[in-house]
């Protein structure tokens, strides 16, 4: 009878080498979190840097998650994801100039980002994706340049000032000064990420999107309109990117066309660290990159803030060389 | 009476390779029809042509309307469930999610239908939260069948269900397919290497060779045919 041979397979891919149900990665993460906590309790500077790093890391993680969503849905890396986020941040700025309040502009921008992301997939990516994935990747590189040019053409290359949604208030927690800005960034990004996760995990359209990304041919057989799902996936990625752009801006206090370029590199490092296919990995990777950058610049004299980008790039290369599947990725096991 | 599914002179190709050279066949409502033939005869392609997974020409009429221009999602929404070779279960999703996908194209609750599915596959209800990839091959085939049934199809396309399964599971599987046919009136177009099993379950059959129908008849006629006996039944 069918039930007789149901013992779990020991070598099932993607579950990691389970040591009594606990994977080495989660042990590592708990250890790192504990070390950070101890550091925070012993030093105020350390605590401040950790909070700042987490806030920036959440922004990187959000953009990384956008990259992962697109990669899972269409198997391509969207090099224009950061520029798209930058463009939507300019749109938010423009809406505020036209008299909307910050949060009105915030939510309106998310809606616009969704439409933009969906349109880009339908108009530019889908026609070439059927030919080859590399052609689609090249289109995203072209899109990078196109968006950059369009934003500079419309709004000019000079700095724009945008009001901060969180003000300049500083909280004092046990002698540690924490800017409301960073707590606000962290909260907004994490809430967005959780909402997107819940959409994928608990809704019917989320299930359809996962099925379409995992096995497009079989998904179509149960009546899922796969093309539509992939376009929605691009739309959601653009929304997450917009959140990243909007939250990155107040930490830099200025809006300029290069806003997202360094952040895209951090997001790539985060996505690769997390395993490129893993949404949770992208967020954890983003937080890890944010915190380590923030701490390393302070405590490692050899690495000054100018070396942050090369450091992120080094992380990317080391992960690709040593563990290409990242922290949460599964090894590529594909049935033909 | 007119057939639920009718193929007339259907051709299909993969790039330059012609897989079907003008297939014509009919499936009456409420019957099981078997498609037999050697490897590479075009059996799987025939099913793929019906469900729209491959580009095809000719006429395919399902329930009175032409479907030869429709894609797989649209064909599926008309009431055709296709269990492809290799099962097509989503191994990364849970058993419950796989079943939910079966009813994806419909609105509303699926609880009462789940109960009916569990009456055919009782063990499934305890495994709802398990990843489908952790099921055995036989269980995955049953899950694929259960998911297809949740589509509430008028026609089930079943491709090589016995492939790689232990004989006892194959017997169990065919018992359920026959039950679904008899009790639920499910119409089945069945591709199967095991001609003996297929003709036992089916009322009619077609033999395909090199992309063409070379023989057609009722199961009894085919079982009595010398060439079928020699080539596919082995006695």
Give a short overview.
The complex is a heterodimer of chains A (336) and B (235). With 336 residues, chain A is an all-alpha fold.
CATH topology of chain A: ABC transporter involved in vitamin B12 uptake, BtuC
**Structural Rg of chain B:** 17 Å
Task: List the total number of helices of chain A.
Answer: 12
Overall geometric form of chain A = globular
> Gap between N and C termini of chain B, in Å?
35 Å
At the first level of CATH, the class of chain A is: Mainly Alpha
Number of strands of chain B: 10
Annotated CATH homologous superfamily of the largest domain in chain B? P-loop containing nucleotide triphosphate hydrolases
Total tally of structural domains of chain A:
1
Helix fraction of chain B, binned, reads: 25-40%
Order of helices and strands of chain A: HHHHHEEHHHHHHH
Number of domains of chain B: 2
Strand order of the largest sheet of chain A: 1-2
Shape category of chain B: globular
Largest β sheet strand count, sense and barrel closure of chain B:
6 strands, mixed
CATH architecture label of the largest domain in chain B: 3-Layer(aba) Sandwich
The largest chain-to-chain contact, stated as pair and per-chain residue counts, equals: A-B, 27 and 37 residues
Q: What helical percentage do the residues of chain A reach?
A: 55-70%
Q: How is the CATH topology of the largest domain in chain B named? A: Rossmann fold
């Amino acid at each position: 009878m069918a039930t007789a041979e149901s013992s779990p397979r020991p070598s099932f891919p993607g579950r990691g080498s389970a040591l009594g149900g606990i994977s080495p990665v989660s042990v590592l993460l708990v250890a790192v979190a504990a070390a950070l906590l101890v550091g925070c309790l012993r030093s105020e500077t350390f605590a401040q840097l950790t909070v700042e790093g987490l806030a920036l890391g959440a922004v990187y993680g959000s953009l990384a998650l956008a990259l992962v969503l697109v990669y899972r849905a269409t198997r391509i890396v969207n090099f224009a994801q950061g520029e798209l986020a930058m463009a939507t941040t300019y749109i938010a700025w423009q809406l505020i100039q036209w008299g909307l309040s910050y949060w009105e502009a915030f939510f309106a921008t998310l809606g616009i980002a969704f439409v933009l992301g969906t349109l880009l997939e339908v108009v530019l990516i889908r026609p070439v994706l059927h030919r080859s994935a590399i052609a689609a990747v090249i289109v995203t590189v072209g899109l990078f340049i196109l968006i950059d040019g369009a934003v500079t053409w419309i709004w000019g290359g000079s700095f724009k000032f945008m009001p901060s949604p969180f003000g300049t208030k500083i909280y004092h927690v046990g002698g540690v000064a924490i800017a409301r800005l960073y707590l606000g960034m962290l909260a907004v990004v994490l809430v967005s990420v959780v909402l997107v996760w819940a959409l994928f995990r608990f809704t019917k359209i989320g299930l359809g999107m996962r099925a379409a990304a995992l096995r497009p041919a079989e998904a179509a057989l149960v009546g899922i309109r796969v093309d539509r799902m992939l376009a929605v996936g691009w739309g959601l990625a653009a929304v997450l990117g917009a959140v990243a752009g909007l939250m990155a801006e107040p930490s830099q206090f200025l809006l300029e066309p290069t806003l997202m370029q360094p952040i895209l590199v951090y997001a790539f490092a985060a996505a690769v660290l997390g395993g490129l296919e893993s949404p949770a990995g992208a967020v954890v990777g983003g937080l890890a990159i944010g915190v380590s950058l923030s701490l390393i610049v302070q405590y490692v004299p050899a690495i000054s803030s100018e070396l942050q980008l090369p450091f992120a790039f080094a992380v990317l290369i080391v992960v690709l060389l040593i563990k290409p599947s990242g922290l949460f990725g599964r090894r590529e096991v594909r049935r033909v | 009476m007119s057939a639920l599914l009718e193929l007339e002179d259907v051709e299909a190709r993969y790039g330059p390779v012609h897989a079907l050279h003008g297939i014509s066949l009919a499936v009456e409502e409420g019957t099981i029809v078997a498609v037999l033939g050697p490897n590479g005869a075009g059996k799987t392609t025939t099913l793929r042509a019906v469900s729209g997974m491959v580009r095809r020409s000719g006429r395919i009429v399902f329930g009175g309307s032409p479907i030869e221009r429709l894609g797989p999602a649209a064909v599926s929404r008309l009431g055709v469930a296709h269990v492809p070779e290799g099962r097509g279960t989503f191994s990364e999703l849970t058993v419950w999610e796989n079943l939910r996908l079966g009813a994806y194209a419909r609105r509303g609750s699926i609880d009462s239908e789940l109960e009916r599915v569990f009456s055919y596959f009782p063990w499934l209800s305890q495994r709802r939260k398990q990843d489908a990839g952790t099921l055995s091959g036989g269980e995955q085939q049953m899950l694929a069948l259960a998911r297809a049934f949740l589509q509430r199809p008028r026609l089930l396309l079943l491709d090589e269900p016995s492939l790689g399964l232990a004989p006892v599971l194959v017997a169990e599987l065919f018992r359920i397919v026959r039950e679904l046919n008899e009790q639920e009136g499910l119409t089945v177009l069945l591709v199967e290497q095991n001609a003996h099993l297929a003709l036992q379950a089916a009322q009619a059959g077609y033999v395909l060779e090199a992309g063409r129908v070379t023989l057609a008849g009722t199961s009894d006629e085919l079982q009595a045919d010398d060439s079928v006996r020699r080539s596919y039944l082995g006695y």
